[in-house]
Amino acid sequence: MRIFDVNVQAQIDRYIDAQDPPKRDDIEAIQRLILAASPNCKLWFLDGRDSDNKIVTNENIGYGTQTLKYAGGGTREFYRVGLSSNATGISLYLMGIEDKKYLPETYGGKIGKAKVTAYCVRFSRLKDLNLDILEEMIATHMTQGASSVA
Questions:
Q1: 96: left (phi over 0), alpha (psi -120 to 50) or beta
Q2: Alpha-carbon distance 36 to 68, whole Å?
Q3: By the 8 A CB rule, do 4 and 60 touch?
Q4: What is the pLDDT of residues 50-72, one digit of tens each?
Q5: Cβ-count burial of 51 within 10 angstroms (0-12 exposed, 13-18 middle, 19+ buried)?
Q6: CA 147, CA 65: separation in Å to the nearest integer?
Q7: pLDDT tens per residue across span 7-44
Q8: CA–CA separation, 119 and 5 (whole Å)
Q9: Rounded to whole angstroms, how far apart are CA atoms 61 and 88?
Q10: Fewer C-beta within 10 Å: the chain N or C terminus?
Q11: In a 3-state reduction of DSSP, which class is residue 68?
Q12: Strand pairing category for 60-63 and 43-46
């Protein structure tokens, strides 16, 4: 997946501006929560394309940095928290969590109307979520040390 380094902020701004108003407002609000938790974090923009320029995922914004460690021994620098618009709403990615049950067990019953998986929280509208829990989830993840993945 290609990660743009040139004028990342401009790419992020264009991506957010291209969203329909309700979703754009929600993405901007979530971005404010992430940046409040880590004001000087590294910003990423991934265009969703692989090395052959084929679209393999939605475009997404990344915040922070961590070293992901793979089971085969390799490592990769990647963002800590990701944010993406999709057909049904918004996805918030919390990358590098080793325990695949952690997010659903810790936040699944408290976050509100959302699908919580091993590393992703999917929801239609921000108003459907418990904002205090969302803020806690983001702040906790943005301040953790480097994690591993299987």
A1: left
A2: 24
A3: no
A4: 888 998 889 999 999 999 888 89
A5: exposed
A6: 11
A7: 899 999 999 999 999 999 999 999 999 999 999 999 99
A8: 25
A9: 17
A10: C
A11: strand
A12: antiparallel
